[in-house]
Amino acid sequence: MKQKHPTASPEGNATRAGAPPSSTDAPPNPADLADTPLSGPVCVRVDWTLHEADQHPEIQDAFVGDSASFWVRGYTGPTSRTPAETTPPILWEPLTRPFGNAVYPLSTATVTSYYATLAQPQSGVVTAESVSDPDPTVPVVDPPDYGVAYVVAHDVALEVPPLDANTLPYAGLFKVRVWKAPTAVLSARTGDGSSAAFDRYFQTPLSVKIADSTGTTQGTHGMAVRFDIIGDATFDQAGSNQRFATIGPTSAQVFSEYGTAYAPRIKAGSKVGTIQVRASSRFAAQQFHFILHVVDPQGPADAAYVATHEGDYQDQLAGSKFATPLQAKVDNKLKNPAATGNIVFTVYPVADGQSIAASFDSGETTSVSISVPVDEGYATATPLNALSGTVSLSGYVTNLVCAYADTYDTQNNDPRTDDTGQVARFTERVWSGKIASVVRDDGKNGQTTAPGQFFANRLTGTVLDGAWKQPQPVDRIRVAFALQGPGQFDGNDDVPVEQWAPDHVVVLTDAHGVATAPRIQALRGQGGSIVVTLSCPVSNSTPAYTIASVIPPDEGVSVGLRSGDLQDQVVHVAFANPMTVAVKNAKGENATSGQVTFTCRATNDATGSFNGAASANAPVADGSAIAPATLQGDDVVQKTASYGYFEIAAATDHTTQPYVFRQRVWRSKHAILKAVSGATNNRTKPGEFFPLPLILHVVGPDNEDIEDLLVTFTLQGPAEFVYELRPEQTGDTSTSATVRTDGVGLANAPRIKAGADNGPVVVTANATVAQDALPFNLTVLPPSTAAFSVYADPATDCQDTMAGGTYAAPLSVSVKNTAGADATTGTVTFKIYNSAALGGFANETDGTQCVVPVDNGRATATDLKAATNSATGSFSVVAYPTSTFFGDPPTDTSDQTAHFTERVWDKQYVALAKTAGDDQHTTTNQSFPGHLAVKATDTHNNNAFVPEYLVTFVIASPELAAFDLSDPDVMIVSGDNHTVIVRGNENGDAIAPRIVANASTGVVQVQACGKADPGTDFKLTIDSGALPRIYTLEPTPAADVVADPDDMDFTQFLLKKNGAAAPAGVDVTLTITPAGLASFKMNDPGVLSVLAKTDDRGQVAHAIWTGDNAGTATVTATQPQSADGVQRIIIGAGSASARGAKA
Prior knowledge:
By secondary structure, the chain is mainly beta. Strand 77 (933-938) and strand 78 (944-945) form a beta hairpin.
């Protein structure tokens, strides 16, 4: 059935037009429309500004029987914005094939047609009639859920279809989707499960996907979707940017964009809880419910309350950073330090209309607002920059920085006026330059006081702004007071300070621009001028005050210890020795007036007093002050401790540093004295020191070491204390000594010397807190002539013999009595301790020992013989006084034992090899140039050295030569001018004394042999004339040595024989010329000649010391059988890198 529809006017008035033709009617005949101008069609366009609440302006969804309303406007041309003045009929007609062909898009649904005279705007209403099956010859594009009808609104003068490039700009094209059933499907895209704080907006928008039954969204673009809030929340009606949405407080109608529909922004209500948002569509059978949560934005540990902590009221020059980063103190809801959350710092002008002159560092740029995390109850902003900009006549601009938790509701609250404690406000000023001024109060300049006293008036400074004509005070600006000289700011004054140090304070000005520094105290012990300079960061003014500290000339300025420190006493008993201090005046001389105050200071361990008083004064006299003798310990604080320390500070009114005494107080006498050394068997001879030191150990009740305890040793008997330098404690005498225990609780008494009389000596040790005294019993022995100590004769030690042979020299010792003189009575026992080698005393019944009487300080054993069955090796013999020695002979190391080692050889394994001195020449009455030397080796043991081997050198022609028994280079065991016995060294080397030729010429045979070797012979020749030249002397490594003045270097020569290095031990004389440039001895320029010997490489070297002057010295090396060698020492001519070789 045909329908008639009203045509709405812009004012909403309805007009009535003729019935529109149906979709089966032919288009109207132009001749029937007499009012229609035929000059050209009106351009008809979609009106995007008008639509029904649930209908899209261009695309509409409907069921069969539903109406769809569209709106158009008429214009004079396709690109014109001029409304058409004519009112031709407008035909609304569905087109099966809008583009006149059999290809997509094709209509698959039918709707009614409609026409009416053009109005501005013009509404066309069509009704969905049916959905047809798609043309089987055309590929299916649209889903089976709906059919599509394409409706064209156009001037009847426009001939369509088809729509093409010429006609389409003149027609409005609409799309109607006619759904067979509500088969669209709604599903969530974003926002489900979101949370928001109460009274805040949800950050994630709600959105749904709406698709057809096949899951595609091509048929849902522009479909109306409704969102309804169920619960305490509202839609943002003003903040939506969707073009065609209709939004109410709790309902919103929106259109999908290519299958996605977005709900407007949602604001949570004021209560914590859960809300639902229902998404629905007429063309979807099922609804979708979003679940949203309204939460408390602040957890138990989150930031809630914010207060200024550091950085408030700063002043900075434009172009600089503020000195102190802004820091806020952050608490949680329970007013405890917050552990989590973020704090936002935002810069505001102090009043609307003023400029912002500060910004925070933010990465590579700056920002007026930053967010920083909370760290253990504090939040610190990034550095704040002072920006250049417009300033007032005062020269500065003020900004306000608000700090608040990021959960703070800035949408409903202004941080600048918040009074809930959730916002911290910092005031920061930016100055165009250093244009402020700082002014001192001249009436407070020039003050004086004594050291230790406070100056009468506090110093002040007034800060004025930069106004040119009438500068105004600046409140709450920082002023620094810097002090130089013997004074300090009072740290306990009630004047508020921003920063405090003894010599530097920073204070804020008050409302009148006045900054007041804490009072100033003149330092103890120091006098002089004190200068206090004022400064401000935005001012070039630096006014200064000059005040003075004046010390009375006779009073003390320094205090030092004399006596009485580190004492011990039980509680409530006065300490034994009063504390005494030395007192000096400013000139370092003894103070003669004033007083010293002794103040007890309690510690965690103990307390003390002067009989109940915390302090006591003592007058100064002759550079000293003695505290009252009433000092006592009052209590041991730690209940489980037996003792503890408290302190007493001694100072004058002018002392810079007091002397602090430490005294130890005990609950009772808990110290225990234990002997460590010297308490028993401590004997000595008259006039001698006792051998054992008196040492005791002091322990506490828990067996812990007690250090620094005064222990007094009192002596009775024929002895006295002997002090190495001076007594340790004042009052020590020869019979009383007081010492302190060391870090491990040991106390060593001074050495004790026996007097002239014999008898017992008792030394008693005691301490003020000892449980019991500790006695030491000593004995002074009567004088004795008996053997007491023995000393081995080195000539009889370490002898060698063959098995069955007798040792050349009987063992012998020197014997002393207790006084150290030669013993005249008693016997000495020689005891053999055999090993692999065996020996015995041949004439004794018990061959393992020999007891002989002392004879004038000596004791000589009977003949010692090696056993015939002895193996090669050694055995030991120990000699000791028979009646006065009580120890173990083999292990004793005292002077009461003498130890011998004797060797036995079962075959002649020892070989003597000549190492120097053979085949020498000299002239009559001259010494042979080199010493004779042999090396003893053990052929049975890989020719190992035989140490300390005794070698006998015998001159077979005594009429031709003799040994020089005064040769300082050789230690002779025994012998005469023609036979000597010498002992080899650890390497088996034995050297004979120098041999001197007599007046006759000839060949001298010298035999060298020991007790266990076959021996060897040397051949020497005495010539009548000059000696033959068998050597050459060459300087090495160069003929010239470069040396620095006042330095040490070496001269060196190589002695050759037949082209090879000469043997060791050949004498070479070295001589320096001229005198004054160098010498052979440091600090003795007169030593210009020395006798040196060749080493095993044939080299002879000696150190030389150069003087202060430059020049060239010559060293001449001479040897009777060689031409002289010469080496120049060039002093001051080169660097150390050019020197000759050094040893």
